[in-house]
C-alpha cells in the first residue's frame, strides 16, 4: 500500500446495527459467520394475495427497545437508525467532542414509507382529523438523521443521502469528505430501511426483481448461484462512527479499521439497469483515493443482490477493476436486500472481517454460476490476514458507490 492508505487518517471506532440476523452488531456478525438466514415467510393477512410472501424481517422489534411514547412518534426507519447509532456511539466509548465538530449522515432509500402508507389509510378511512400531527416528521426521509443528531447533540450537520440501494455507502463516503474537508472530527454514518410492506413487495414483484421461492425462505437469496431468481426484500440498519485518526488517538480510542477511500459514479443511462463501466469507475476511484492497488484488496463485500443480470455485471466489474484474486463475500444471501441500509451492513462485515481476519461465506451457493470468474467464498467462512477490503453498493437510478477499508 502507498501513501494515503498507510496514513489511516480516518478510522472506524464504533459499530451498531439491528438486522434480520440480530438486534445488535455483535449478534449480527456472529450470525453471518454461522451462515444463518434472516429470511422467513410473511404470514400476515395482508401478504396472502401477494405473489411473493417471503422477506427478511428484523430479528428484534426496535419499538420494544424504546420508551412507548417515544417509539410511537417515530417511524420504524427512525427507530432502527436511533438504536444503531446509540450502540455505535457506546461502542466508540461515548466520545467527548465539540458538538460543532460532530456530524451525522444517515442514508435511506425510501424513508418513512410505513408511516406514509398508514397515515394515508387513516385519511381515507377516518378523515383528515384523525391524521397524526406527527405524520410529517415520521415520513420525512431526513427524519432518521435528524433523530440521531438530536440524540447525540450533533451540530456539524445532519445529512441524508437518498440514492436507493447506494444510500448508506454514499453516507459513509460523505462522512469521509466531511472529515477530510475539516468540517467535522467525528461523523456518525450509516443507513436505515423499513419497507417490508404490501406496496413495496407488490411493486418489486411486478418488476420480477424478487425471488419467488415462497416454499423455501432460507434458500431464496442465492447470490452468484446458477439458480438465483431475484432478491429478498429486507429491513434493518447499521451505523459506523468515523473519526479523524488523530482525534481518536488523542482520546485513547482503539480503531476497528480505517476508511481508505470512496468512489462514486453515475451511469446516466437507465433508471433501473446497471452498468459495468460505471461500477468499474467507482471501484477504481475508491482505490485511487485510498492509495491502494487492486492487489491490496483481500476480499470484497459484493453488492450481489441475487438477480440474474445484476450479479453477472458486478462480477464483470470486479474482475475488470481488481482482477480475480480477491475473495468474494455476499451477505445478502443471509440478510436479504436492505435497500438503502445495505451498504452500512456490508461495511459492518468488512470492518469486522479485517479486524478478525475472516469473511463470511455466501449462503445458498450450491452451484456457482460458471459465468462468474471470481473466487467466491462457499461453504465456510474464509480466514485471512488481509490489508484491505472493498464494499460495493449499486442502485436503481445508476448510482454506484464503492468504499475501501483497511486494517489498522
From TrEMBL:
GO terms for cellular component: cytosol. The keyword Transferase applies. It comes from the Bacteria. Belongs to the thiolase-like superfamily. Beta-ketoacyl-ACP synthases family. Residues 7-407 form the Ketosynthase family 3 (KS3) domain. One of its GO terms (biological process) is fatty acid biosynthetic process. InterPro entries: Beta-ketoacyl_synthase, Ketoacyl_synth_C, Ketoacyl_synth_N, PKS_Beta-ketoAc_synthase_dom, Thiolase-like. The gene is fabF. Pfam families: ketoacyl-synt (PF00109), Ketoacyl-synt_C (PF02801). This is 3-oxoacyl-ACP synthase.
Amino acid at each position: 500500500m502507498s501513501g494515503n492508505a498507510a496514513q489511516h487518517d480516518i478510522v472506524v471506532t464504533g459499530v451498531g446495527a439491528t438486522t434480520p440476523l440480530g438486534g445488535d452488531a455483535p449478534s449480527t456478525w456472529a450470525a453471518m459467520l454461522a451462515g444463518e438466514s434472516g429470511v422467513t415467510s410473511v404470514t400476515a393477512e395482508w401478504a396472502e394475495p401477494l405473489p411473493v410472501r417471503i422477506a427478511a424481517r428484523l430479528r428484534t422489534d426496535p419499538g420494544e427497545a424504546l420508551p412507548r411514547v417515544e417509539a410511537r412518534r417515530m417511524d420504524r426507519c427512525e427507530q432502527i437508525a436511533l438504536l444503531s447509532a446509540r450502540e455505535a456511539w457506546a461502542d466508540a466509548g461515548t466520545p467527548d467532542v465539540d458538538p460543532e465538530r460532530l456530524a451525522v449522515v444517515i442514508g435511506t432509500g425510501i424513508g418513512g414509507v410505513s408511516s406514509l402508507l398508514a397515515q394515508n389509510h387513516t385519511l381515507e378511512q377516518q378523515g383528515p382529523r384523525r391524521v397524526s400531527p406527527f405524520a410529517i416528521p415520521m415520513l420525512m426521509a431526513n427524519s432518521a438523521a435528524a433523530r440521531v443528531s438530536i440524540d447525540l447533540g450533533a451540530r456539524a450537520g445532519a445529512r441524508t443521502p437518498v440514492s436507493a440501494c447506494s444510500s448508506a455507502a454514499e453516507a459513509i463516503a460523505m462522512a469521509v469528505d466531511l472529515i477530510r474537508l475539516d468540517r467535522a472530527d467525528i461523523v456518525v454514518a450509516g443507513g436505515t430501511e423499513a419497507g417490508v410492506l404490501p406496496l413495496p413487495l407488490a411493486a418489486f414483484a411486478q418488476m420480477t426483481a424478487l425471488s419467488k421461492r415462497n416454499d423455501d425462505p432460507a434458500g431464496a437469496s442465492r447470490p452468484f448461484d446458477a439458480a438465483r431468481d431475484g432478491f429478498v426484500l429486507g429491513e434493518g440498519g447499521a451505523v459506523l462512527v468515523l473519526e479523524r485518526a488523530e482525534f481518536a488517538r488523542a482520546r485513547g480510542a482503539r480503531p476497528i479499521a480505517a476508511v481508505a477511500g470512496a468512489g462514486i459514479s453515475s451511469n446516466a443511462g437507465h433508471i433501473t439497469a446497471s452498468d459495468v463501466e460505471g461500477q468499474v469507475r467507482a471501484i477504481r476511484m475508491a482505490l485511487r483515493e485510498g492509495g491502494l492497488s487492486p492487489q491490496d484488496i483481500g476480499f470484497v463485500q459484493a453488492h450481489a443482490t441475487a438477480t440474474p443480470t445484476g450479479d453477472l455485471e458486478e462480477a464483470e466489474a470486479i474482475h475488470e477493476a481488481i482482477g480475480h484474486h480477491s475473495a468474494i463475500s455476499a451477505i445478502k444471501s443471509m440478510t436479504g436486500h436492505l435497500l438503502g441500509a445495505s451498504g452500512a451492513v456490508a461495511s459492518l462485515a468488512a470492518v469486522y472481517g479485517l479486524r478478525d481476519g475472516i469473511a463470511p461465506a455466501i449462503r445458498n451457493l450450491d452451484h456457482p454460476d460458471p459465468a462468474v470468474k471470481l473466487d467466491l467464498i462457499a461453504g465456510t467462512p474464509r480466514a485471512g490476514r488481509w490489508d484491505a477490503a472493498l464494499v460495493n453498493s449499486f442502485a436503481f437510478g445508476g448510482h454506484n458507490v464503492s468504499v475501501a477499508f483497511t486494517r489498522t
